[in-house]
Amino acid sequence: MATEAADKELATFLAHSVELESEALERYQELAESMAQHHNDDVAKFFLRMAREADHHLTEVREIAAECDLPELKPWEFNWPEAEPPETASYEAVHYRMSLREAMTLALGNERSAQSYYAQAAGWAKHPETEKVAQRFADEESAHAAELETMISELVGKGEFHRVEDDDPHMPE
Q1: pLDDT by residue (tens digit) across 139-172?
Q2: CATH class in words for 2-153
Q3: Statement: the pTM of the whole predicted model exceeds 0.70
Q4: What does the DSSP 8-state code read for residue 98?
């Protein structure tokens, strides 16, 4: 009976992890396409890089989950700290003229949110296997955050914010 409960806990955690990484992948791809259309090439390339990292992590999660019978959770059954999964970039935080530094800072926040989520999941886990997998994911997100911190510190220039509109406001006559 304990094995059944442990399997269910791990499967539920992995279902959350698949959703978290899938949403991150989809959002970063969306953002990369949008930035490319606005000729913000450095940011588009960066978001593509983040999409590849999310895809890599999603593949890893799916490999682990292949041995489990994952529950098919409805959107409202996911237990997220916010409205969306932790690693999903907020649309409100994105601007078509954002700088590379802004994009990296946004991604850093996402990595930290995912790390926090996975660390909390490890802390709440009642079964060692779930705790082990959750802590492994938390450690990976922490490593991603450290890498982004290094990249940000190595950026040349101050990375001014570019949220200046080119067009005059449209005022109806």
Answers
A1: 999 999 999 999 999 988 655 545 455 555 555 6
A2: mainly alpha
A3: yes
A4: -
